[in-house]
Design brief:
Elements: E1 11-14, E2 22-24, E3 31-33, E4 41-50, E5 58-67, E6 76-80, H1 84-89, H2 91-102, E7 105-112, H3 118-121, E8 127-134, H4 143-152, H5 154-165, E9 171-174, H6 183-230, E10 235-237, E11 243-245
Antiparallel strand pairs: 1-4, 2-3, 4-5, 6-8, 6-9, 7-8, 10-11
Helix pairs in contact: 2-5
Organism: Cinclus mexicanus (American dipper)
Keywords: Calcium, Membrane, Repeat, Transmembrane, Transmembrane helix
GO molecular function, one term: beta-catenin binding
């Protein structure tokens, strides 16, 4: 605003009904999220700028905010038998076809090919389109529901995409590969195995040591019994049944 002073002060506000998800700094125009947990896709916000003059002037524009849920568990992987550079060039049309046939809004997370070199990218006849479908409330559609709808509309999607690519199109659903085990988890597993092995070895040592001690104790007892049996009994019962010493009396001089 070319005006000076208060007349040149521009204030920003949201005029859409999505103020529960977003808010705006009225002085800087910075938009930030309030609560988009579990939501994804593109939000179109109507933003108004207004000066503070006597005859207040306003202007409005649409701001598109994309919430990325690339770590979502509801990502669906659609494999097309097309070169990746061709799919990338027609990504907007691919998105339109999916939205039209599925009946949901679609957010394309990424377009992927196993080959990244330029030569390979232009020659590989297989491209994976990873996307999330979300309903009118911007809630993610469960991946299984999206896959089921894809299977139902497979023929119609392929027919529509043939017009986009001007070529025969085959669309298939890819299943997510098992997530690789993190180094931290591997280290934890190895440590757990080592601790378990150490404990088992210690327990085996204790049991063997206890068994060895019992064996030696038993052997000592047997030896003592044998020794006792090797000596004459120093005590015996006399005719009256009382114990008397069998020791030979000392010789006395006559």
């Amino acid at each position: 605003d070319p005006d000076s002073g208060d007349n040149g002060l521009v204030l920003y506000s949201l005029v859409s009904s999505q103020t529960n998800e977003f808010d705006i700094n009225e002085r800087t125009g910075q938009i930030f999220t309030v609560s988009v947990a579990g939501k994804t896709g593109t939000f179109n916000l109507e933003v108004q700028a207004a000066d503070n003059g006597t005859r207040r002037l306003t202007a409005q524009t649409t701001v598109s905010v994309t919430v990325d849920s690339s770590s979502s568990t509801n990502i669906v992987m659609l494999v097309l038998n097309q070169k990746i550079n061709v799919v990338e060039r027609n990504s907007a049309e691919v998105k339109r076809v999916l939205e039209d046939k599925l009946g949901w809004n679609v957010y394309v997370v990424n377009i992927y090919s196993k080959e990244f070199e330029r030569k390979a990218r232009s020659s590989t006849e297989e491209t994976q389109v990873n996307f999330i479908a979300f309903d009118e409330a911007h809630q993610e559609v469960p991946a299984e529901d999206a896959k089921r709808k894809l299977r139902e509309q497979k023929g119609a999607i392929e027919l529509e995409l043939e017009q986009v690519f001007s070529a025969s199109v085959s669309a298939a659903i890819a299943e997510a590969a098992a997530a690789p085990v993190s180094p931290e988890l591997v280290a934890a597993i190895v440590l757990g195995v080592l601790l378990a092995a150490t404990f088992v070895a210690f327990l085996a040592y204790v049991l063997l040591d206890l068994k060895r001690k019992r064996k030696y104790k038993k052997q000592d007892l047997v030896k003592k019994v044998e020794i006792m049996e090797g000596f004459d009994n120093p005590w015996a019962a006399d005719e009256n049944g009382s114990l008397s010493s069998l020791e030979k009396p000392e010789h006395t001089s006559s």
